[in-house]
What we know:
Layout: H1 2-18, E1 23-24, E2 29-33, E3 35-37, E4 40-47, E5 50-56, E6 64-65, E7 78-83, E8 92-104, E9 108-118, H2 126-129, E10 135-137, H3 139-142, E11 147-150, E12 155-159, H4 162-170, H5 173-176, E13 184-187
Amino acid sequence: MKLKYLFVLLFFSIFTDAQNSFELEDTEKTVIPFKLIANLIFVPVNINGADLTFMLDTGVAETSIFSLENQELTLPNVEKIKFSGLGGTASIDGFRSDNNVARIGKNFINRSATLYIITEQDFNISSHVGIPVNGIIGYHFFKNHPIVIDYYNRKITVYHHEDIFRKKLKGLKRLTSQLKKTNLICLPMWK
């Protein structure tokens, strides 16, 4: 009986972890161009048909929108929530939206994206970087795929399988010994 419950718990944890993540469709790898401003990476993200710009940050757990700046965006399954721990002691109002479609490039797609919408205007960073920035994305971008960030050429390559990624590593012998157990490589800004 306990084994049956363990199996059900394991199945649901795998299923829920598989949701809300980006997947490569119909390709072994995809290349995503990015803008590099003040050592920050900005990628184009299409959310439910709206073209937006997100800052890419490996330390961010959830995908958040903090500015739409004249963009029209339709969000399904919206629920009002309170955010806490965003730099201050007070909580602020916001929204959570489930089952969004997020697309980066042609083939990197999350068909069940959960978005957190921060309505507080103090989180707008567009004026600091000089381009409209609509949100921030992190963990769900990096979660399931080996990635190479090429700062010099301003492109991110996402690989479907680790074996294809490892073949790329063989060409980078200088880095291979240092990066054997990682799925993320950052190439320098200079050649």
